Amino acid sequence: MERFTLSTDQYGEIGFGCLVDAENRLVASAFGPSLKIVKAHLANYSKKIGGEPMPTDRPITHEMIRLYNGEDVTRAISFNTDHVSKFQRQVYRVLERIPKGKVTTYGRISKHLGSAPRAVGGAVASNPWPLFVPCERVVNFDLTIGNYGLCGNLGPAGTITKQALLERERVPILENRIDKKAVWDPSRDNR
DNA sequence: GGACCCAGAATAA
DNA sequence: TTATTCTGGGTCC
To answer: Is the overall model pTM greater than 0.85, yes or no?
Structure first.
């Protein structure tokens, strides 16, 4: 049984939480409409991968709130990737390269990786590090916002949250649709 | 292996 | 523009 620390924070109505391992690597993060939901979600995740969370305070949730507000983190975050598949890691590596203020589509990522859009959708949906890995920057082929899961729950609240996040990152949005100018292609820009 | 899942894409109207 | 159909690939048992 691995030991993790669970730190949580409240910012306005929103609850934030981070699961961190003994080496100070981020195992998972979550945010949602209440602290209770976030705690339950992370406790459940921890159980799934065979860990035991101990509550503590860590400044990492402050970094999370910065990201939520469309700001940058103040230090490098290292991730514990032990519990995600190889394919997921490939997808997340692409997500991390999406510049702030830009978006890409499931189809573009799948073409870049030689995979299928729905498979990418599945991988993005199971992103353990929302906000730290910017899964909100992936939208539908037709540039509508698409879905966003809050603690694993899909629904209108997720889409509203996703749009708000993108707006704070200064992604141009015209009537529920991303401006074409903001589209970034993983195959064209190999920084 | 095989069944089932997916936060998509393409097509038709 | 919406509704329907078709996908391929990943994951879990």
So the answer is: yes
